[in-house]
Amino acid sequence: xxxxxxxxxxxxxxxxxxxxxxxxxxxxxxxxxxxxxxxxxxxxxxxxxxxxxxxxxxxxxxxxxxxxxxxxxxxxxxxxxxxxxxxxxxxxxxxxxxxxxxxxxxxxxxxxxxxxxxxxxxxxxxxxxxxxxxxxxxxxxxxxxxxxxxxxxxxxxxxxxxxxxxxxxxxxxxxxxxxxxxxxxxxxxxxxxxxxxxxxxxxxxxxxxxxxxxxxxxxxxxxxxxxxxxxxxxxxxxxxxxxxxxxxxxxxxxxxxxxxxxxxxxxxxxxxxxxxxxxxxxxxxxxxxxxxxxxxxxxxxxxxxxxxxxxxxxxxxxxxxxxxxxxxxxxxxxxxxxxxxxxxxxxxxxxxxxxxxxxxxxxxxxxxxxxxxxxxxxxxxxxxxxxxxxxxxxxxxxxxxxxxxxxxxxxxxxxxxxxxxxxxxxxxxxxxxxxxxxxxxxxxxxxxxxxxxxxxxxxxxxxxxxxxxxxxxxxxxxxxxxxxxxxxxxxxxxxxxxxxxxxxxxxxxxxxxxxxxxxxxxxxxxxxxxxxxxxxxxxxxxxxxxxxxxxxxxxxxxxxxxxxxxxxxxxxxxxxxxxxxxxxxxxxxxxxxxxxxxxxxxxxxxxxx
Length: 609
Prior knowledge:
- By secondary structure, this protein is α+β, with helices and mostly antiparallel strands.
- Strands 1, 2, 3, 4, 5, 6, 7, 8, 9, 10 and 11 form an 11-stranded antiparallel sheet that branches.
- Helix 9 packs antiparallel against helix 10 (about 430-445).
- The mean pLDDT is about 90.
């Protein structure tokens, strides 16, 4: 009897073919997209030298007890099959080569892999090259299998929180339910419906448990799913998945095999692929308080790991073998043993933003457990650069302050410098709504834990959304494309120009008669934010943000700006006086805010007997 560890998976769409297979230069491969079969002409080669179908043996050797593995292929025709290994900054090596004649679809052929648990072997990434020797041949399917029995039985609670994204969640659920091999595993889907717009009749399947919920954000939705799953005491592991992902269910299947053969407990951070540039790895976990370029300590910053790797390139695939120290993983796909939650508690009631980061830090710091970003366990998700949501700024400010207070990484001087810098930047380009989010976020942080305990999160969110639209001096046009030839030339501001720009906050502190009626354009991208001093004494600024194709048109309103400055100065004074007290309050409240009793009350559940 054998057990499937990894399947050689087939793409669902043509635009992702290169993430699953590579082919010889002689031409395009003939793929039957309905059955997943690949037809080959004589001498044509198809290879699993790809992101999804490589076998990353170094990870399996380190994190599982698996040792004896082999490829099991179903072929039709005559073939030569070669097994290769590549490593980070190493040349590829041929591990074995076999010829198979007159293969029939009903018969499987086996190709052994090197023993995994050999400490003297320099491991890496393994893949196949399958060359057709007959006039025509068909590659039907393949898998990496073992005859070693799993160490333990795994039962998985798949938890997805949704808010008025019915099409996304229905598609994700349908994809999972249609996977025939996954059906042999033990799992249940928990859909927490924060918008209460989904019906059980939409799914009509016993494998799905629909949970209506108030709009408590992602934090509240995921936690309600976790509470419900753990109450049954049926599930060894929990998988948190966003509703708006594009899922290949092989990611879930591989999760099972990893945990079935794992010696120790660890969390798995699924990687995020760019939904709009499907061959780009956006991140494979992230590092906390690190500069994205230098990876040196940088307060309030995070560094996405393996950021923007082009997965069509072999060197990128080999770079994945260089394992990073992951601090947290996004909840687009994050798996955790149930025991972890029983020991460290549930999520903080953040509504959205920073909840995944804080939970990952808790796993690492309280339990001293690893978070592993296994290559090829990934989903496609809308990238952050494509989203233009002003009210995000409130949750980013407030929740960052809370999380960093709890973990003792917050420093008064660094904190005030960072948020004052963000605040002044917003005023320099007349982004009053975003400045309002920073101010309100900091004000609410200074209220202490009662803010989260006593306020209705749904009501507060509605208030914040309305507040983010308070000032009508701004217009925002998403999905706006400008010809790059219209980009103004980059200019470097002189020292005196920068000084005047900052001293007067680009004219907010100047008398009215000094202003001009002029307008200026700033072109911003990942490499350049525009010369902000060009806005000095202007009444209007148009900002084109190339990365997310967004056009902002902002007008100067000195009264708004000055009122915001007054509130910020009040924050500086209040925080100086209350800083140590507020820090202690948040730290002391963290265990309560993540406890079962708190969440039962917060979610309006009956107290357990």
